[in-house]
Write a structure and sequence with these properties.
Layout: E1 2-10, H1 15-26, E2 32-41, H2 46-51, E3 56-58, H3 67-79, E4 84-88, H4 89-98, E5 107-112, H5 121-129, E6 136-139, H6 142-150, E7 158-160, H7 175-181, E8 189-194, H8 203-216, E9 220-225, H9 231-240, E10 247-251, H10 256-259, E11 265-268, H11 277-285, E12 289-292, H12 295-298, E13 308-310, H13 315-327, H14 329-346, H15 349-370
Parallel strand pairs: 1-2, 1-4, 2-3, 4-5, 5-6, 6-7, 8-9, 8-11, 9-10, 11-12, 12-13
Helix pairs in contact: 1-15, 8-13, 11-14
Domain Glycosyl transferase family: 177-341
Domain Glycosyltransferase subfamily 4-like N-terminal: 14-165
Keywords: Glycosyltransferase, Transferase
C-alpha cells in the first residue's frame, strides 16, 4: 500500500483546495492510503475529508515564516515518513521541501496551480533553491508548466495534469424565485462573475463592460459572487462608472457553483490564471462562457466553439459577445453543448485521479529500484 501525505496551507473552499479534496477522496484505497496535513488552518472542506475517513492534521502556522511549524513538520516527516509527500501552493511547497530530510525516505511532489507572475524575487529564488528537493512538479495547464520551466525547473521534472470538474449541482430555487429574491424581473439577462475578488481577476474591466452591455440590453444585470481584498474598491468603481444600480455583490456563497445554472453568460476577465475552476464549472453546467484570451483559458475554450475569448482588459468585447448570445438561441445552445461535452470527455475526475496515481506509483517504483 502506497502512503501519500498531502500538504496544503488551508482547507478553504478555493480552487486548489477543491482539487486536492477531489483527488484525496477519490484515490483507489486498495492501492493508496492518503492523509492530509494543513499548515495554517482548517476550513469547510475538512468535513469532506472526514467523511472519506482521511486523517487530517492542522499545524496552526502563524505568520509568513513560523519556525515552530517547520520543526513540527520536520519531526512528523522524519518519524512517520510517507512514500510520497505531495504539497500544494507556495507556502506548502516551501515548507514541505524545507522540512524534507537530506537522506529522505520518500519522494516529493509539488503542485503549482497558476502562472505565478505575482511572486516576489525572493519567492522565485526559493523555488529555484528547492529544485534539488523536488522529484516532480505538477502543473494544471501547459502555461503553468512553461512558466516554471522558464524559472529553471527542468522539463524532465514537470508534468501537466489538468484540473477536474464535477457538474455543479442544480440550485435549490428556480430561476424565477432567484430573480425575484434579487428584485429582478423575469425578463432579466444575468451575467455573472464568480471567484475571489483580487486584482488578477480584473473585475474592474468587467464593470466597464457592464456599462456598455446595459446600453445594448436594458434588462441586463450583473452578479458578482465571492469576496476578497478588492471588494470595497470594486463597489466604489461600480459607482464611479455608474453601474452600481445594475450590479449585485453577493459576497461569499456556499451555493455559488449551483447559481451558475441561473446565469445567461459567465464572465472571467483574469490577467493570469492556472486553470479556472469556476470557468470549468460554468462550461460543465452548459452556461455560455466569455473569458480573457490568456493561455490557460485557450486550453479550455476554442473561440467560437466552446465559448468566446476577449482580449485582456476589453470589457466592450465581453458586452458585445453577450449581446450576440442573447440574440441567438441556436448559437447559445451550440456553444453550451460543445463546452459541456468537452468537460465531460477531457476533464473528468476519474481521469485526473488516475493520472496522479500513476505519477505516485512511478515515483515509488523508482525509489524501490534505487534502494
Amino acid at each position: 500500500m502506497l502512503r501519500v501525505t498531502f500538504l496544503i496551507p488551508t482547507l478553504d473552499r478555493s480552487g486548489a483546495e477543491k482539487q486536492l479534496v477531489l483527488l484525496a477522496t477519490g484515490l483507489p484505497r486498495d492501492r493508496i492510503a492518503p492523509e492530509v496535513i494543513v499548515l495554517t488552518r482548517s476550513g469547510p472542506l475538512e468535513d469532506d475529508l472526514h467523511r472519506a475517513d482521511i486523517p487530517v492534521t492542522i499545524l496552526g502556522k502563524r505568520g509568513k515564516f513560523d519556525p515552530r511549524t517547520l520543526r513540527t513538520l520536520k519531526k512528523r516527516l522524519r518519524e512517520n515518513p510517507p512514500d510520497i509527500l505531495h504539497s500544494w501552493l507556495f507556502a506548502a511547497n516551501a515548507y514541505g521541501r524545507l522540512a524534507t530530510p537530506r537522506r529522505r525516505a520518500f519522494k516529493t511532489v509539488v503542485s503549482e496551480r497558476c502562472v505565478d507572475s505575482w511572486k516576489a524575487s525572493w519567492q522565485l529564488w526559493l523555488d529555484r533553491r528547492l529544485i534539488s528537493c523536488t522529484d516532480a512538479l505538477l502543473g494544471n495547464s501547459e502555461s503553468v508548466a512553461t512558466f516554471y520551466e522558464q524559472q529553471g525547473v527542468p522539463r524532465s521534472l514537470i508534468s501537466v495534469i489538468p484540473n477536474a470538474v464535477t457538474p455543479p449541482p442544480r440550485p435549490t430555487t428556480s430561476r424565477a424565485e432567484f430573480l425575484n429574491s434579487l428584485g429582478f424581473t423575469p425578463e432579466t439577462k444575468l451575467v455573472g462573475v464568480i471567484g475571489r475578488l483580487a486584482k488578477q481577476k480584473r473585475v474592474d474591466d468587467l464593470l466597464w463592460g457592464m456599462q456598455v452591455l446595459r446600453q445594448a440590453e436594458p434588462t441586463a444585470r450583473m452578479l458578482i459572487i465571492g469576496d476578497g481584498p478588492e471588494r470595497a474598491h470594486l463597489q466604489q468603481h461600480a459607482r464611479d462608472v455608474e453601474v452600481a444600480d445594475f450590479v449585485n455583490f453577493l459576497g461569499h456563497r456556499d451555493d455559488a457553483a449551483s447559481l451558475i445554472h441561473h446565469l445567461d453568460a459567465f464572465w472571467l476577465g483574469s490577467g493570469f490564471e492556472g486553470m479556472s475552476n469556476s470557468l470549468m464549472e460554468a462550461m460543465a453546467a452548459g452556461t455560455p462562457v466569455i473569458a480573457s484570451d490568456i493561455p490557460p483559458n485557450r486550453e479550455l475554450i476554442t473561440h467560437g466553439v466552446h465559448g468566446y475569448l476577449a482580449n485582456v482588459g476589453d470589457g466592450v468585447a465581453f458586452a458585445q459577445y453577450s449581446v450576440k448570445l442573447f440574440q441567438d438561441p441556436a448559437l447559445r445552445q451550440s456553444l453550451s453543448t460543445a463546452a459541456r461535452d468537452r468537460m465531460q470527455s477531457e476533464f473528468s475526475v476519474p481521469r485526473m485521479i488516475e493520472r496522479h496515481a500513476a505519477v505516485y506509483e512511478e515515483l515509488a517504483k523508482g525509489a524501490h529500484a534505487q534502494a
